[in-house]
């Protein structure tokens, strides 16, 4: 069993309180006991980061490249081991766990390259004998607060750019899944990062997260989580003295349109993957399947037949397609929405049953509603579980209107054989990411990630666009005296 400590100023620290990390596939399996930090731990971490910032922010791009490359190389070399740990604590299948770890390694390698690609501009002034330089500088100490559904990839895509651009970090992972983040912190601690540059403080969001957000020496906070928490964080950040830069990723109610001319096999593959893989616990999951009349009945029939073949079981077992829900609280929320859907008049066409397996866990068969109206709560609110709704549309125009009729705007997809409709959808979808004949979930690490409306706030994450959040722009003027 793992004993997880906080990492502050280069030292591993115990705490007076600990929390158990429980395997959702087998609740009798305790992954480890992990430190539960407090506001005082955040104070020490921020002080260490503040002391380390002057030297780290002016360190050479080669030093930062080499450190990030070592981190990425070790993650990739240990991807099977770390993937198994991730799947054990979070509940996604082993293949998904290994894939997520590989992505984390690739993210660090990408940003190791970004260290060497830092660029600025030298411009002529409108005034004679004056030169203008525009450069990017690190913003300072960055607080990073991450969710439980991607316990190593999301930390990676926040930590890597923060370090690449010369910032120092105070990192709080989700309390439900500390083991993967703790393993990542161990790798970072061995990479050559100077003491205090990277700090890990585990614990409750209401304690550690709140202390990070309100700490005077932390200049910026990047958060991924719920809409309600994100909005509260944004309001607090603006009210802080000094005000903090804030970046929020807060979920989605992502549509996938299936048109009459779609390849039915591709459409079903996309829908199954988007709606149910990773147990539907992805902010990019397709929880609204908007299907035009000509293919609606055939699509529903094909979906329900395919769902019968999905294996829901222990995440580490061979042949498992879908693992457990993360914990009892999330399972209860999923069951509440199943009840809400039925009460609203939707038809539960398949699934939605609690399942018993060899070990005690939070197993739920994927659920598909039909007869759904876009005004229903199950079509408006993020469920964050293996639950999806089929909404009938008359034609493409109505399908597009339904797709955009949401308070969210993270990801959207369309399955069609028409270049005309695919092109029109890419231009007119009110989402930050658009997929054509692909699942709405599943994105690359070298391009921007983020959405519109209630899904995201602030600059995009990932790729070269990460510089918008993790740096500040300086404009310098020089009078040429010669």
How many distinct helices? 15
Strand arrangement across the biggest beta sheet: 15-18-19-14-13-21-22
Q: What count of structural domains?
A: 2
How can the largest sheet be summarized? 7 strands, mixed
Q: Which range best describes the helical content: under 10%, 10-25%, 25-40%, 40-55%, 55-70% or over 70%?
A: 25-40%
β-sheet strand percentage: 15-25%
Tell me how many strands there are: 25
Give the overall pLDDT as a whole number: 97
Low-confidence stretches are none
User: Strand pairing plus helix content: what structural class?
Assistant: alpha/beta
CATH class of the largest domain: Alpha Beta
N-C termini distance: 69 Å
CATH architecture group name of the largest domain: 3-Layer(aba) Sandwich
Radius of gyration over all CA atoms, rounded: 23 Å
């Amino acid at each position: 069993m793992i004993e997880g400590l906080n990492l502050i100023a280069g030292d591993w620290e115990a705490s007076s309180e600990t929390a158990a990390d429980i395997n959702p596939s087998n609740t009798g399996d305790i992954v480890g006991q992990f430190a539960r930090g407090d506001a005082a731990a955040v104070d020490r971490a921020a002080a260490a980061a503040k002391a380390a910032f002057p030297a780290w922010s002016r360190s050479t791009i080669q030093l930062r490249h080499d450190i990030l490359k070592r981190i990425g190389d070790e993650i990739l070399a240990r991807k099977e081991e770390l993937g198994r740990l991730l799947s054990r604590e979070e509940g996604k299948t082993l293949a998904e766990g290994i894939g997520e770890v590989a992505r984390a390694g690739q993210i660090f390698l990408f940003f190791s390259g970004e260290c060497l690609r830092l660029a600025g501009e030298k411009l002529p002034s409108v005034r004679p004998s004056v030169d203008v330089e525009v450069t990017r500088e690190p913003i300072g100490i960055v607080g990073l607060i991450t969710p439980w559904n991607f316990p190593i990839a999301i930390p990676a895509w926040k930590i890597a750019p923060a370090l690449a651009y010369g910032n120092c970090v105070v990192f709080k992972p989700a309390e439900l899944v500390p083991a993967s983040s703790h393993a990542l912190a161990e790798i970072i601690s061995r990479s050559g990062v100077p003491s205090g540059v990277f700090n890990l403080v585990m614990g409750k969001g209401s304690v550690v997260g709140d202390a990070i957000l309100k700490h005077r020496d932390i200049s910026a906070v990047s958060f991924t989580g719920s809409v309600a928490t994100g909005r509260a964080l944004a309001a607090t950040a603006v009210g802080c003295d000094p005000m903090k830069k804030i970046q929020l990723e807060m979920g989605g109610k992502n549509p996938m349109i299936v048109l009459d001319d779609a390849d039915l096999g591709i459409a079903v593959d996309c829908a199954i993957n988007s709606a149910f893989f990773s147990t539907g616990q992805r902010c990019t999951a397709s929880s609204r399947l908007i299907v035009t009349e000509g293919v609606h009945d055939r699509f529903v029939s094909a979906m329900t037949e395919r769902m019968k073949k999905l294996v829901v079981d222990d995440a580490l077992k061979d042949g498992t397609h879908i693992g457990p829900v993360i914990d009892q609280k999330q399972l209860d929320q999923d069951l509440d929405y199943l009840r809400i859907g039925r009460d609203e008049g939707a038809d539960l066409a398949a699934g939605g049953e609690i399942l018993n397996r060899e070990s005690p866990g939070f197993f739920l068969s994927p659920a598909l509603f039909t007869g759904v109206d876009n005004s229903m709560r199950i079509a408006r609110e993020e469920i964050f579980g293996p639950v999806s709704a089929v909404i009938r549309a008359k034609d493409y125009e109505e399908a597009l209107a339904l797709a955009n009729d949401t308070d969210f705007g993270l990801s959207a997809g369309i399955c069609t054989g028409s270049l005309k409709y695919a092109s029109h959808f890419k231009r007119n979808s009110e989402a930050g990411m658009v997929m054509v004949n692909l699942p709405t979930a599943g994105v690359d690490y070298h391009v921007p990630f983020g959405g519109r409306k209630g899904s995201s706030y602030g600059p995009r994450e990932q790729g070269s666009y990460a510089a918008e959040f993790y740096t500040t722009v300086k404009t310098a003027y020089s009078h040429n005296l010669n």
